Amino acid sequence: MGQYNQIAGQNLERLAALSDGIFAVAMTLLVIDLHAPASELIHNNAGLADALRDIIPQIIVFFMSFITLGIFWVGQQTQLNNLTSSDRDLTWLHLLFLVFVTLVPFSTDLMGSFIQYRLALLIYWGNILLLGAALFITWRYAVAKALVKPEMSAAVEAGIERRIIIAQSLYAFGAALCVFNTYYSLGFIVLVQLNYVFAPRVLGLNKL
Amino acid sequence: MGQYNQIAGQNLERLAALSDGIFAVAMTLLVIDLHAPASELIHNNAGLADALRDIIPQIIVFFMSFITLGIFWVGQQTQLNNLTSSDRDLTWLHLLFLVFVTLVPFSTDLMGSFIQYRLALLIYWGNILLLGAALFITWRYAVAKALVKPEMSAAVEAGIERRIIIAQSLYAFGAALCVFNTYYSLGFIVLVQLNYVFAPRVLGLNKL
Amino acid sequence: MGQYNQIAGQNLERLAALSDGIFAVAMTLLVIDLHAPASELIHNNAGLADALRDIIPQIIVFFMSFITLGIFWVGQQTQLNNLTSSDRDLTWLHLLFLVFVTLVPFSTDLMGSFIQYRLALLIYWGNILLLGAALFITWRYAVAKALVKPEMSAAVEAGIERRIIIAQSLYAFGAALCVFNTYYSLGFIVLVQLNYVFAPRVLGLNKL
Amino acid sequence: MGQYNQIAGQNLERLAALSDGIFAVAMTLLVIDLHAPASELIHNNAGLADALRDIIPQIIVFFMSFITLGIFWVGQQTQLNNLTSSDRDLTWLHLLFLVFVTLVPFSTDLMGSFIQYRLALLIYWGNILLLGAALFITWRYAVAKALVKPEMSAAVEAGIERRIIIAQSLYAFGAALCVFNTYYSLGFIVLVQLNYVFAPRVLGLNKL
User: Fold this and answer.
1) C140 touches chain D (CB under 8 A)
2) What was the ipTM of the complex prediction?
3) Domain range spanning residue D99?
4) D91 CA to chain A: closest CA distance, Å?
5) What is the DSSP string of D191-205?
């Protein structure tokens, strides 16, 4: 049985394939909650325009969640590209990360529907926090077990951890802004995300 | 025609790719039944909190099914990683396994909605049983047809089978607990699963 | 522009990856129409059992469609495994095949809901016919353009075509049985499919 | 941190895998809006035929969107096949392209439901325009950063750009026809798409 655990979950390629699949489905499912308005209520172009204007908050949350998933996909693939192999426990830690990925369409739906309520925002932020925590743990474990490619410098290793901690601190600060207003939180989180997408140029926060 | 059967279904990579795809979709679809509550019924944070408290059983069943799929994904990939090639019949046996994977979102939905009824629990357990049986058969077939990598020791081969049998015995015992109460069954099954995830450390059952 | 057409669509691996993805999603979406019964109508185990008995036809159609998709997945991958490369037109012919794959959940849903009406059965059969026709054309094209691996004998090449023609003749005969009763058609089609799954042993039709 | 950006997003294979996954899900989700008619309203073959006749516009839009996705999938894979590597920014530009891919099921649903309204058509066209613009930008960026395979001639490089510009001009012309009637637009767009699928033979527009 111990021998089973030694041969289980070693294949990095299949872990990457499962991860890409889950990200692909989650990213595409985000759009499922953007329904075309019910056609019997709409009688002209203006009616359609009004109905679409009503779902603008959902569309913004949709883009935000796509960016969230994009950031974490890049983060996970950067880790996986720099491993020499996996083991059973690391595979399960990545599955832990992936379960939080599959929850993003749910927390997005919640946020799009209840954008004015603090609880919806806190759940959304909680999802981002869990994604970040899981990705931090997978990396720490890989470093501790020497599963990381030997050519990777200690500076880069530390950089990956620092990056996660700074990003999560910014997200936590954004979430805390919901004490004042959930829209402040939302706006700040979007800014943090755009900084990570356009990182090396716009806000310069990535030099922190 | 016989020649067709000799060249059909040999490609392990594509079988792995299809499997990863089906697992990815099934894992992500689990969340589809976790709907945000209807927004017209909710007027403040407390209302949203109440509505979310109502879906806690579904959320627990969601996590349990994600773990179920994770366990069987690790189990299947461990098998596929240790094969030298496939043949037409082994491919169909894996498709049999995959059809039970696609049923997991359905049996999960049933279990989340009717957690108090024995029938829902028995169907859920039946799904796990069929997954285990299919995985047992694929392995037996691969060993019998000498499709397994030659460096694999007989001890590991036997270990894979024993592991499935012990796990299924534990699941069956858990299902039998529904004679008393379906929540006992649920709790026991969750414990068995957590043991397999954290296997080498927590309960020590994996030494059996 | 002509040069663009020479470099477009050459990558067999990505065509295989897209195909596996579409098959994986289609196979898993089949189950989407198997909903858990509405919980407010059900008050005990017997009520749940009754509700589940009502969806038995859908469950049978679900399994039949999974087998349909499995047969065509094996058929397509057998073709792709035996090609040296693709070109732009062959890629589009496979996309034609894949559009009929994505229609299977729709024709399955139709068949599960209207199993007693000839039209639903004819649409389902039409879907199988289009899948077979597309797969026949992709193969003919690949042979004509010499994209097939040179080690493949003419006998196997002809076998792939003959196999499709015989299968489609059997499906057409099954569909024609709906003149009497759609259930005869359904039963015959299931038998043909099982013959292809268990091909070399059960009915011996594969010697035809 | 700068070092993180140097190692992030380099893996072309995983970008291709994520892209194939997203295209596969989006292509298969298109069919989700083709529902079987409600069974309680239908009492015979003729009733079913009538109900299906009502969804013919949706079926046409479904095929059009599948072709749209097919054209852009071929376009993106042609680019990716001709790169030597990716970098962080190119990865994000492809994620920008992919977000527009995930929106296709939404704009398709809108178009199928409101085919007579100019706004639905303009949104659909806007989606195609954004797909084309994103693919143009990814290519320009890859050429500028010398990420393209060295054996690729300048003529082919320019051909890829010219192809996108001509296609988008034709789509824009088609969209402009909605000044007269949205069906003219739809018909023209379908013609442009068929030209690209059957490119080297039918309309000869690809010689432009």
Assistant:
1) no
2) 0.88
3) 2-207
4) 8
5) HHHHHHHTTTTTT-G
